[in-house]
UniProtKB/TrEMBL annotation:
SUPFAM superfamilies: SIS domain. It is an enzyme of class 3 (hydrolase). One of its GO terms (molecular function) is hydrolase activity. Keywords: Hydrolase, Repeat. This is SIS domain-containing protein. The keyword Hydrolase applies. It comes from the Bacteria. Its EC number is 3.5.-.-. Transmembrane segments: none annotated. Residues 32-172 form the SIS domain. CDD domains: SIS_GlmS_GlmD_1, SIS_GlmS_GlmD_2. Gene3D superfamilies: Glucose-6-phosphate isomerase like protein, domain 1.
Length: 359
């Protein structure tokens, strides 16, 4: 009997996939490395991404900027395509589309090419529609993900962007060989923990399943690199569990969204151990007076059964490879627990009518 792939199938492939990406980085990123060697004066990178691709970039944006010593901007592909009349010909544009079929990103890349801008596209499908828009492709190295709710591809994209930063910085001369080797070693240590975090995430769900099943409103809150994880939690839970969910940056949550807070809110705090940890703890303490449904995904330690400690000390940016896993497991297992069949689309004609994805 043929075994059908599920989200969990691809979650369990994340460690092997990331290990291969790390090992093959020099060859897969060769064109990008060569570009950086030839363009050491580069000052700006503009990333075009939407959906989970946007969330992935938000996990890495500040790391990319810091290590490459460049300004990194993210643009909504359709807004750039249809509403922006200026294209920065001195910037490097990077389109991100795992499937290579995101219509908005394809159209934005076409505009970049028409304006003769330097660009690359990061994708897992070198024969997809986006390959007809440009030949400047970088293979993510994660293969096809047959389940629409991407998990392995999320980790693969984050890792590739981090590696573009590290390899690009070495080529550009903004880091030395010692720093390069240290960063690669930290990534190796992070990837080695993936299977352990999958196991912990399953246990975390088991401990809290009864409470999770009662959720009708979810809010994920993160800061720094954790903001990208909060956004991906929003995307994954909305896609699979199909209840209202929003992802917020820590300070942004304090400017209005907190006003809906009551005991029906399930708050998930993402603690990436960045410089805003103290402010995050202050908010968590305050909100605990208004809802008992508070859960924490933390790089530190915790004995609270509602929390999951990923115990990662390789830095805020690399920890995103692990911080996302509990939300991937939560989305898969909770949707299954409440009886949602993810193999059946509630809107089977959506893509054909709206053409958000193209072949």
């Amino acid at each position: 009997m043929e075994v059908k792939e599920t989200m969990l199938t691809y979650i369990k492939e994340e460690k092997e996939c990331c290990t291969k990406i790390l090992a093959n980085r020099k060859s897969s990123l060769s064109s990008f490395i060569d570009y950086m060697k030839e363009n050491k004066a580069l000052k700006r990178i503009t990333v075009l991404a939407t959906g989970s691709s946007l969330n992935e970039v938000n996990c890495c944006k500040n790391y990319l900027s810091d290590i490459l010593k460049v300004e990194v901007d993210i643009k909504n592909p359709f807004i750039y395509k249809y509403y922006e009349n200026y294209t920065d010909t001195d910037a490097l544009y990077i389109g991100v589309s795992q499937s290579g079929s995101s219509y908005s990103t394809i159209e934005a890349v076409k505009k970049v090419k028409e304006n003769n801008c330097d660009h690359f596209v990061l994708t897992s499908n070198l024969k997809s529609a986006i390959s007809r828009a440009t030949s400047n492709l970088i293979d993510m190295g994660c293969g096809e993900e047959k389940v629409g709710f991407v998990t392995k591809g999320f980790s693969a994209t984050v890792l590739n962007i981090l590696l573009m930063g590290i390899e690009g910085a070495l080529a550009k001369g903004t880091i030395d060989l010692s720093t390069y080797e240290s960063e690669i070693s930290k990534l190796e240590a992070t990837i080695a923990k993936i299977d352990d975090i999958i196991g912990k995430s399953m246990e975390w769900f088991d401990r809290n399943e009864a409470e999770f099943k009662k959720a009708k409103r979810v809010v994920a809150i993160g800061y720094g690199a954790g903001y990208g994880i909060a956004c991906e939690a929003d995307t994954k839970i909305t896609e699979t569990v199909r209840i209202p969910c929003t992802g917020h940056e820590l300070e942004e949550y304090m400017h209005g969204p907190y006003l809906e807070l009551d005991d029906t809110n399930y708050l998930f705090y993402i603690e990436s151990k960045g410089i805003l940890e103290e402010r995050n703890n202050l908010l968590k303490k305050y909100t605990s007076d208004y809802t008992k449904h508070i859960f924490t995904v933390t790089c530190g330690n915790s004995q609270n059964p509602k929390d999951i400690a990923i115990d990662c000390n390789t830095g805020e940016y690399f920890s995103t490879l692990l911080l996302v896993i509990p939300f991937q497991v939560l989305a898969y297992r909770l949707s299954k627990s409440i009886g949602i069949d993810l193999s059946v689309s509630p809107f089977p004609d959506f893509d054909s009518v709206l053409k958000s994805k193209v072949k």
